[in-house]
Amino acid sequence: MRALVLAVIMLLAALGAPAMAQAAAVASVASPDGRVRIDITIDGEGWAHYAVSRDGKPLIAPSRLGFQFTDQDAIGRNSRFVSSETSSRNTRWEQPWGERRFVTDAHNELLVRLASPGASNALTDNRAERPIAIRFRAFDNGIGFRYEFAARADGKPWRIADELTEFVIAAPGTAWWIQAGDWNRYEYLYHHTAIGEVSAAHTPMTVKLADGTHLAFHEAALVDYSAMWLKRVDGLRFRATLSPSSRGAKVERSGAFTTPWRSIRIADDAAGLYDNDLELNLNDPNVLGEVSWFTPHKYVGVWWEMHLESKSWASGATHGATNANVKRHIDFAAKHGFRGVLVEGWNKGWDGNWFGNGRDFDFAQSYPDFDLPDLAAYARKQGVRLIGHHETGGNIAKYEAGLDAALDLYARHGVDAVKTGYVADAGGIIAPGDAPGEQRMEWHDGQRMAQHHLRVVREAAERRIAVNPHEPIKDTGLRRTYPNWVSREGARGGEYQAWGTPGNGPAHAPTLVFTRMLAGPMDYTPGVLSLKGRGGRDLESTLARELALYVVLYSPIQMVADLPENLEAHPREMDFIRKVPTDWAQTRVLAGAVGELAVLARQDRNGPDWYIGGVTDTQPREVVIDTAFLPAGTRWRAHIWRDGDTADYRTAARHDIVIEQKPVTAGDRMTIRMAAGGGFAVRLEAIE
User: Fold this and answer.
1) Are residues 369 and 229 in the same domain?
2) Which of 59, 260, 408, 612 has a CB 3.0–4.6 Å from the CB of 682, allowing a cystine?
3) Are 456 and 467 in contact (CB under 8 A)?
4) Residues 2-33: pLDDT tens digits?
5) Are residues 200 and 445 in contact, defined by beta-carbon separation less than 8 angstroms?
6) CA distances from 668 to 291, 635, 679 (A)
7) Domain contains 288
8) Dihedral sign, CA of 499, 502, 508, 512?
9) Domain for residue 17, yes or no?
10) Do 495 and 483 fall within a single domain?
């Protein structure tokens, strides 16, 4: 009898298994060109899934959608399809500044409405269904989707423990990624591994599938929400993991709200990933209105000398932010046409160990040897502006308390850009608590920091001040909505060349172009023409490569990082740096492979000239530049700064550079050699 019962149970299970696994198609949407398709299904357990294909080939296999909460049942299993609707959009909008002036937003949209069983409650047994909508957008070069929550029926806030959003990559390949949840935020060299060897990654994460297709996973419009990490669950299956919070729930929102967009760029090659405005198009339009008060520019600063340890942030005999030293930098900036002078270490609080505590910083009181009103006026007379600096040491409780006074001080003296800093371990942000005087420890990219950064940007915008945060929350395209959020760090920047162990290495820049730079502008701080770091350390670069970085790594504000005396020693190289713009009408990737090489062409937004920059990894390369992107029949003069025949980042010949000119007609091909660890820069001057 027992054997018969067991056989019946096994038969029923076998019969039921296909029914449970079978998925019912409920909705789909394709991109305007019809190549990219998103399919939505509900499986036998009631899990909603999405899948992405291109030309019929799976890119993202069916992947679950859902949420876990701290105080109610999850949204996931037993979901029910309610309805769907579609719409389309094809518009063109103008950036006030950027990699290109005009952006096209062409997509087809699918809104899927689901219902999930209500939260179980032992006292009331309230099982009313909870509605949730998921909005998908299919572009020719990628997809985006977000969740849209209605207010809770019981009036309580939504308390999200984590997302259950999955990304099941449909084919093997390789990935470029940095680890998430570690102490040093985003400041790591990139790993290059098989997709199946990724652990937990920050986004953007870039992958190359076996057939050469490139994907980049990221998010857009990170507002009042925790940043998404990608955690590999098994095989090629990843799940969204939200950055932690001290309050238990990783996200707490009241009323109706939308999540950030989850985005996937799709391209045939690395170049296609960069020539893509997906995340910008997923953000809301500019809410600040007219923002011509921000001027893209280059700047010098009292900064590199601190990294060399010849000057200090702290007061005393080696203090860098003195009246005399700042005036020296102002004079240099005026002489060479640089608009800004960054001054770090000017305000009280730098003495002692400020890393990760920031308790002694005062953002409105200067050291006695720094006269802000006098220096700001001195700079203005020469057409130069001071760039402010607010290092918080990760103490946003202290910074928020003094934010109004600090920004008001800058506004009074015409300081219209500020670099903010959050040097602290990943989970070491000191934030205000719920009770007066209470403080909590938060993560750099948790919901509390998303709120904080946007508060700083909004407060600065009210005073017509641009913001450039270092140790920031990652970029998710919010510069479209808040154009005064002009740049940020958010990766291993140029200072690691001074003292990092190891340094950034030649592969770092051509990796950044197709990973970090997919998120948005980066204040990398190039221009160390001496090629020397702390203690005489040699930079892993060449002289021509330092020039190339101004074109390859985009930012509307670009630092000329080296000491004035070192820059003065390179007048021919300074000629390029003086002329290269920081705002562009068009951008095109002419050649690219992640971690190997990147060659980009950009057109000056304020004139006809084009600029081309190229960088390589440790391998010397010869690239052929096809100038077919130039208007047919036009003539140009190419000003070229390239590696000399003996140049090599590993030897003293890293300084070997050839500067030459040659005529070019649209459609010509130019062959340029890059040395190991080297690069080149070209200015294409239009000939009347």
Assistant:
1) no
2) 612
3) yes
4) 343 333 333 333 333 333 358 899 999 999 99
5) no
6) 39, 10, 20
7) no
8) negative
9) no
10) no
Taken as a whole, the chain contains a residue count of: 688
Same domain, yes or no: 540 and 392: no
Structural domain contains residue 1: no
Assess whether 105 and 229 both reside in one domain: yes
The token duo for 567 is: 């820059």
In this structure, what CATH number is given to the domain that contains residue 458? 3.20.20.70
Q: Is the pLDDT of residue 211 over 70?
A: yes
Query: CB count, 10 Å around CB of 398?
Result: 22
CB atoms within 10 A of CB 122: 5
Tokens 């945060």 sit on residue: 469
| Residue 555 per-residue DSSP state | -
Kindly give, in sequence order, each residue whose CB lies less than 8 Å from that of residue 236, ignoring residues fewer than 6 positions away: 168, 169, 170, 171, 172, 195, 196
- Which residues, in sequence order, are bridge partners of residue 301? 342
Closest by alpha carbon to 677, among 596, 567, 562, 580?
596
CA-nearest of 582, 544, 546, 578 to 562 is: 546
Reply yes or no on whether the pLDDT at 45 is more than 70: yes
Whether residue 6 is contained in a domain is answered as: no
pLDDT digits (tens, 9 = 90+) for 562-614: 999 999 999 999 999 999 999 999 999 999 999 999 999 999 999 999 999 99
pLDDT in tens, 223-248: 999 999 999 999 999 999 999 999 99
Q: Is residue 519 classed exposed, middle or buried when 0-12, 13-18 and 19+ CB atoms within 10 A define those classes?
A: buried
Question: How is the beta sheet containing 417-421 ordered, strand by strand?
Answer: 466-470, 417-421, 385-391, 340-343, 297-302, 557-559
CA dihedral 550, 553, 559, 563 (to 10 degrees): -70
Which amino acid is residue 256, in one-letter code?
A
Rounded Cα distance between 364 and 372, Å, is 10
Give Cα 266 to chain centroid, integer Å: 18
What's the token pair of residue 441?
Answer: 């420890």
Q: Which residues contact 502 (CB under 8 A, 6 or more apart)?
A: 189
Last residue of a domain, one of 466, 489, 512: 489
Please return the burial class of 237, using the count of CB atoms within 10 Å of its CB with bins 0-12, 13-18 and 19+. middle
Token pair in block for residue 677? 């660890």
Check: CB of residue 622 under 8 Å from CB of residue 672. Answer: yes
Say whether 650 sits in a helix, a strand or coil. coil
Where is 571: in which H helix or E strand?
helix 571-579
CA distance 369 to 323: 6
Helix H or strand E segment including 115: strand 102-116
**Which of 218, 253, 281 is the endpoint of a domain?**
281
Note whether 431 and 510 are same-domain residues: no
CB 241 within 8 A of CB 162: yes
pLDDT at residue 672 tops 60? yes
The pair of structure tokens assigned to 549 is 């970085």
DSSP codes, 388-403: EEEE-TTBHHHHHHHH
Handedness of CA 568, 574, 577, 579 (dihedral sign): positive
Alpha-helix residue ranges (DSSP H) falling in 182-269: none
The whole-angstrom separation of Cα 423 and Cα 493 is 14
Q: Are residues 465 and 506 in the same domain?
A: no
289: left (phi over 0), alpha (psi -120 to 50) or beta: left
Domain that holds residue 461: 295-489
Residues 456 and 466 in one domain: yes
Same domain for 371 and 464, yes or no, is yes
Give me the CATH number covering residue 104: 2.70.98.10
Reported in sequence order, the residue ranges of 445-550 that DSSP labels E, i.e. its strands, are 466-470
3 state SS of 254: coil
Q: How many domains does the chain have?
A: 3
Taking the C-alpha atoms of residue 250 and residue 241, their distance in angstroms, rounded to an integer, is: 10
Note if the pTM is more than 0.85.
yes
Note the pLDDT tens digit of each residue in 306-318: 999 999 999 999 9
Q: How many CB atoms lie within 10 A of CB 212?
A: 11
